[in-house]
């Protein structure tokens, strides 16, 4: 009887060792499960997995990584807008007007939305994280439809929009599924 | 004899017993060993299976997709339908997702943006505001505190703003009451409530977000109880007085209520929280607001409602037309439990019975329990809080009205959010199921020039302009009479699934609706906000009346909310349909049937502003003629400003 107990104990220890690789890959499961609940699965996967901090991350941390991605993409877009605006005289007035308006909106994403989302995630008042993320999507979309003809920012606006939507989805997951 | 199994203990020299002994020892060991190896094999096999079916290795993904980020992400993205935000905070799907579709013929200019600021609703001079905090009446002044961001027109860096008024309408701004200067509120001086003690002293309980982001409850009190303006506040030196109890998350513990007395003479408060997806209200008793005992039970809980924020708990009289002090209990009294649901950003209430002995409450009608039934307001309205006004013996309700435009517009105009006009709350004796909300009577003092329209006939399918001068600061009280013949003749439909929110708005014509008013409408009706009734008749002949507010054509702008708000409104036999509307630039507060159903909305027209804004009566029903009688008043500004010479 005693030997039986010792054997079973040894068995359990062995099993734990056999499962250790799964424990390490366990967080891959969390990323996949989380991204499946967002409307842009591939973008979500790529954005999270390309950040090494997603390795042991909680869902809250995944949301923060997504917001970092949003900030990066928005900053790249704003840089491009500034570049285009520097063409100055070469731009027709409507294009100039649209670009200026877009610059305003992207400034709001970077200087208002992102800090709002980060503070809300940190303190756990998640509805304001959702608000900031949803608004970033609106700003990107509003920028895109400012252009009367061809927009030079379509691809980038789409990325910023979609990343925002993913961030908002992850916040929703935190709100509705997790206590901590 | 050779030892067959070298692992076994050496047997004794006794013959028969040896044989038996050896056999008994060997069998269990064989069994155990085979079980062990069997389980091990099974386990390893299972591990292998899981590993193979598991996610792709981290490194592979990184290498494959890095180079082709843009195209891969977009190709896949375009195949997926973009998702609009939920009703409470969303922009209409139809107007938003046309990349290169709707072309705005405006940008937000200063004229449009500056027009949006309200004239007689409470708002700070600039920047962001949210929840009402600690409202109270003390030494001749009404006090109002609020969540405030001193640095930006978005939520963040939250502190307590403060203002005073003699009449709940004309407010004077005071310095910030509390800032984030302690470790226990460093990350936010959040929502709280005031309690007035036996000796008239005031204490404030509020939530602090600590340096670690944990939600705790703190005690504060006026620095000088003889200062009627209560300008300076002191925090109890040994805060926090409450931390999240076991089983409650560090981010699920906030917004303590005003305290009420138990029959044992202790003070009792409730704090909203959640356990998994069940919204709950925790209960604490205290004698000194410093030491607390948590009751074993909850005040109440409703599964599936998520986190309960800004819980409020108060008595209402079933018979009298006055408010009740928070500690009152007894015959002819019901208690209201209210919660702001974090998940859908709406305020819900339910009427029920409070048991003082065990600190619990049961709804009268569990099918319309807290979070699944009635709302204070079917538009933009959140974090509401009541207080007992001992000055006029009424219970007064404050509610935070956020913006429904883009944050870029908020940044441009430099502010965001207003408060509703304070409302009195009464139990609706006639229905027995609803509360009645009505703007405090002091608002009437803002009425200037009035105009009356009697028995205006509005035929089916018509629009009648109202000749009033300015239409951006208005108080309108309207009554609608309907032909009872038309109601009887209308055929009942078994498709009784109308809902303001999912309907086609005021453009969707029904036999018995919609009809009502168009506010903030320009002459050509290119922009308009209908506030209206829509009646349906079921196959059983029963009439239902809906009260709605349609934002779908409220503005040419594409980055504002375009949803339709509203709900059923109970209409009793013999009652005419009545609406009161307060129009104050970008806010519309509408009250149906004396405040049984209320809708607040934020509207941001680009054309129907300043002198171009007009009001119309309309009737878009197909089988109903309507007669309207109404009074309209121009409303004066409340001249809300800093307290002079402070």
Q: Would you give an account of this structure?
A:
The complex is a heterodimer of chains A (180) and B (646). Chain A is an all-alpha fold and 180 residues long. Chain A contains six helices and no strands. Chain A has a single domain, classed as Up-down Bundle (Butyryl-CoA Dehydrogenase, subunit A, domain 3), CATH 1.20.140. In chain A, helix 1 crosses helix 2, helix 3 packs antiparallel against helix 4 and helix 4 runs antiparallel to helix 5. Chain B has seven helices and 36 strands. In chain B, the strands form seven sheets. Chain B has a six-stranded mixed beta sheet. A six-stranded antiparallel beta sheet of chain B has the order 24-35-26-31-32-33. In chain B, a hairpin with a 4-residue loop joins strand 15 and strand 16. Chains A and B meet through helix 1, helix 2, helix 4, helix 5 and helix 6 of A and helix 1, helix 2, helix 3 and helix 6 of B.
Produce a short descriptive summary.
Chain B: It is an enzyme of class 3 (hydrolase). The complex is a heterodimer of chains A (180) and B (646). Chain A is an all-alpha fold.
Q: What is Rg of chain A?
A: 22 Å
In what range is the share of β-strand residues of chain B? 35-45%
Structural class of chain A: mainly alpha
Distance between the termini of chain A: 43 Å
Q: What sequence of helices (H) and strands (E) makes up the elements of chain A?
A: HHHHHH
How helix-rich are the residues of chain B, as a percent range?
A: 10-25%
Can you count the helices of chain B?
Answer: 7
Low-confidence stretches of chain B: 1-25, 52-104
Average pLDDT across residues of chain B?
88
Helical content band of chain A: over 70%
What features would you highlight for this structure?
heterodimer; A: 180 residues; mainly alpha; Butyryl-CoA Dehydrogenase, subunit A, domain 3; 6 helices; elongated; B: 646 residues; mainly beta; Tachylectin-2, Chain A; Jelly Rolls; 2 domains; 7 helices; 39% strand
């Amino acid at each position: 009887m005693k030997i039986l107990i010792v054997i079973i104990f040894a068995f359990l220890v062995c099993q734990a060792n056999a499962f250790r690789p799964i424990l390490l890959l366990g967080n891959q499961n969390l990323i996949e499960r989380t991204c499946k609940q967002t409307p842009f699965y591939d973008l979500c996967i790529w954005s999270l997995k390309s950040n090494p901090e997603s390795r042991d991350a909680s869902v809250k941390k995944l949301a923060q990584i997504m917001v970092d991605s949003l900030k990066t993409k928005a900053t790249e877009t704003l840089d491009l807008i500034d570049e285009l605006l520097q063409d100055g005289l070469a731009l027709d007035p409507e294009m100039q007007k649209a670009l200026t308006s877009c610059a305003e909106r992207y400034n709001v994403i970077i200087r208002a939305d992102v800090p709002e989302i980060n503070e809300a995630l940190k303190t756990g008042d998640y509805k304001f994280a959702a608000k900031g993320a949803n608004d970033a999507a609106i700003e990107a979309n509003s920028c895109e439809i400012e252009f009367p003809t061809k927009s030079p920012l379509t691809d980038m606006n789409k990325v910023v929009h979609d990343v925002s939507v993913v961030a908002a989805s992850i916040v929703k997951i935190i709100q509705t599924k997790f206590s901590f | 004899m050779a030892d067959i199994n070298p692992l076994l203990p050496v047997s004794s020299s006794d013959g028969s017993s040896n044989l038996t002994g050896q056999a008994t020892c060997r069998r269990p060991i064989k069994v155990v060993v085979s079980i062990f190896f069997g389980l091990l094999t099974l386990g390893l096999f299972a591990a292998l299976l899981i590993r193979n079916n598991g996610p792709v290795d981290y490194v592979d993904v990184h290498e494959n997709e890095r180079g082709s980020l843009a195209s891969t992400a977009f190709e896949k993205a375009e195949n997926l339908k973009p998702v609009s935000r939920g009703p409470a905070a969303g922009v209409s799907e139809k107007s938003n997702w046309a990349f290169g579709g709707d072309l705005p013929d405006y940008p937000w200019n200063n004229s449009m943006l500056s027009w949006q600021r309200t004239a007689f609703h409470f708002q700070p001079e600039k920047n962001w505001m949210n929840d009402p905090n600690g409202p109270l009446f003390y030494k001749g002044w009404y006090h109002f505190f609020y969540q405030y961001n001193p640095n930006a027109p978005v939520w963040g860096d939250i502190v307590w703003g403060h203002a005073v008024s003699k009449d709940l309408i004309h407010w004077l701004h005071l310095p910030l009451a509390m800032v984030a200067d302690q470790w226990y509120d460093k990350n936010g001086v959040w929502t709280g409530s005031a309690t007035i003690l036996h000796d008239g002293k005031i204490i404030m309980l509020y939530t602090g977000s600590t340096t670690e982001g944990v939600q705790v409850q703190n005690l504060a009190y006026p620095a000088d109880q003889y200062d009627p303006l209560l300008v300076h506040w002191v925090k109890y030196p040994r805060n926090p007085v409450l931390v999240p109890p076991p089983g409650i998350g560090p981010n699920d513990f906030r917004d303590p209520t005003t305290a009420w007395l138990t029959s044992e003479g202790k003070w009792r408060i409730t704090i909203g929280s959640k356990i998994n997806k069940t919204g709950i209200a925790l209960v604490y008793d205290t004698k000194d607001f410093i030491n607390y005992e948590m009751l074993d039970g909850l005040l109440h809980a409703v599964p599936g409602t998520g986190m309960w924020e800004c819980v409020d708990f108060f008595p209402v009289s079933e018979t009298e037309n006055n408010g009740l002090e928070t500690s009152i209990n007894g015959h002819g009294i019901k208690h209201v439990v209210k919660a702001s649901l974090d998940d859908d950003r709406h305020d819900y209430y339910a009427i029920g019975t409070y048991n003082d002995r065990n600190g619990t409450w049961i709804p009268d009608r569990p099918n319309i329990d807290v979070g699944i039934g009635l709302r204070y307001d079917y538009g933009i309205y959140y974090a509401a809080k009541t207080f007992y006004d001992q000055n006029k013996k009424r219970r007064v309700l404050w509610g935070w009205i956020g913006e429904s435009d883009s944050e870029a517009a908020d940044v441009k105009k430099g502010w965001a959010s207003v408060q509703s006009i304070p409302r009195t709350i009464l139990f609706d004796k006639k229905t027995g199921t609803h509360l009645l909300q009505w703007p405090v009577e002091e608002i009437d003092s803002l009425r200037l020039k009035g105009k009356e329209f009697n028995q205006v006939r509005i035929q089916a399918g018509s629009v009648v302009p109202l000749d009033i001068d300015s239409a951006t600061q208005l108080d309108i009280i309207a009554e609608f009479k309907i032909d009872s013949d038309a109601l009887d003749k209308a055929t009942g439909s078994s498709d009784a699934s109308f809902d303001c929110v999912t309907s086609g708005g005021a453009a969707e014509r029904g036999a018995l609706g919609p009809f009502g008013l168009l506010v903030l409408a320009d002459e050509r009706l290119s922009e308009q906000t209908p506030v209206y009734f829509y009646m349906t008749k079921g196959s059983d002949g029963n009439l239902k009346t809906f009260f709605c507010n349609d934002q779908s054509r409220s503005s040419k702008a594409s980055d504002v909310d375009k949803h339709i708000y509203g709900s059923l409104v109970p209409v009793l036999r013999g009652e005419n349909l009545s609406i009161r509307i307060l129009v104050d630039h970008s806010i519309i507060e509408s009250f149906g049937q004396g405040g049984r159903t209320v809708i607040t909305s934020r509207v941001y027209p680009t054309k129907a502003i300043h002198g171009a804004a007009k009001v119309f009566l309309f009737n878009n029903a197909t089988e109903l003629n309507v007669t309207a009688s109404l009074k309209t008043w121009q409303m004066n500004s409340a001249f809300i400003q800093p307290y002079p010479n402070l």
